[in-house]
Amino acid sequence: MKRIGIISDTHGYLEDIDLVLAATAEQDIDMWLHAGDLGDDARYMQEHTDVPVYAVRGNNDRVQPLEPREQLIPLEDTYIYMTHGHDVSYYNQSGDLIHLGRAMGAHLIVAGHTHRHDAVRVGKILFVNPGSLSLPRDKSGGSFAVVTYDEGQFGVEFIYKQEII
Questions:
Q1: Residue 130 · residue 117 · CB < 8 Å
Q2: Local structure of 164: helix, strand or coil
Q3: Any residues with CB less than 8 A from the CB of 87 and at least 6 apart, and which?
Q4: Neighbours of 122 (CB within 10 A)
Q5: Nearest to 2 by CA among 78, 55, 65
Q6: How confident is the model over 84-98, as pLDDT tens digits?
Q7: Using an 8 Å Cβ cutoff, are 84 and 107 in contact?
Q8: Radius of gyration of the chain measured on its C-alpha atoms
Q9: How far apart are the C-alpha atoms of 75 and 87, rounded to whole Å?
């Protein structure tokens, strides 16, 4: 089984990244995905973990545009498609990105931008927006996600800030 940690929209609140890494230290995370805003946060995360960190550039990542706007990441027999999500409709983010990811052969679609956690399943495809641990715009109090992949099936768990502080 693969475990994928997903975080987004940390906006320079590095103490939140420290909280996430401490809370998941015993979970055998295989990779971390940072869905943008801020790229420096993803580099900080990579310096503080031994697993790969993949990142994309968000709409607030203009100073250090080192991350790509989107990534297609291999995962066993499928792919993960990740983008920040600001280039698609706010009101149909999951639908637009599921369509795009499906066209690329991805079964896990990851985006941020809205600061609202969300998971949408369409057949074998799973869309995940982890929300924002630092600046949530929903009533979650802040969130990130851990996705599992086992024998072709994805599962998702949201972890809320109040559970880890």
A1: yes
A2: helix
A3: 69
A4: 13
A5: 78
A6: 999 888 788 999 999
A7: no
A8: 14
A9: 24
